[in-house]
Amino acid sequence: MERAFKRDVVQVRDLFAFISDFAREHGLAEGAAFALNVAIEELFVNMVRHNPESGGDITVDLSTDGRAVTARITDCDAEPFDPTSVGPFDPATPIEKRQPGGLGIHLARSLTDDMTHEYDGTKSTIVLTKILRTEDA
């Protein structure tokens, strides 16, 4: 199931509806749907905020084999940035010593089981995998 979204944070509402439709269609448990919503939304908003000059849409493709859900979030007009290279977020660091950024990537990582990144010169794709456990199916 694939859909393109305009590069605008207002699209998050439509993004949530898209993910909810997918979850309902594939019988995903509420916990799995919630994790996907938060992880995908965080990465989508990062793509919007950090590449505002692009006129291209952001595509989200969701699929499942019954054991896991794969989400491919693709920015078709992006500068190279690999979110998997961002170091771990340390919540124990006092707020006044924290550098801005990284929390959204941390959330996406912690709510899914795998995150990879592909870049082909202009197209940046983040691939998330969420393993469906018995309570998620």
Note the main attributes of this structure.
5-stranded antiparallel sheet; globular; 32% helix; Heat Shock Protein 90; 137 residues; alpha+beta
Q: What's the arrangement of strands in the largest beta sheet?
A: 1-2-3-5-4
- What is the molecular shape? globular
SSE string? EHHEEHEE
At CATH's second level, what is the architecture?
A: 2-Layer Sandwich
Low-confidence parts: none
Number of strands: 5
Biggest β-sheet strands, sense, barrel: 5 strands, antiparallel
Helix content: 25-40%
Question: What radius of gyration results from the CA coordinates?
Answer: 15 Å
What is the CATH topology?
Answer: Heat Shock Protein 90
Mean pLDDT across the residues is 88
Task: Tell me the domain tally.
Answer: 1
Can you tell me about this structure?
- With about 140 residues, this protein is an alpha+beta fold.
- The model has no long low-confidence stretch (mean pLDDT about 90).
- It has helices at about 10-25, 30-50, 105-110; strands at about 1-5, 60-65, 70-75, 115-120, 125-130.
- The two termini are about 20 Å apart.
- Strands 1-2-3-5-4 form a five-stranded antiparallel beta sheet, with helices on one face.
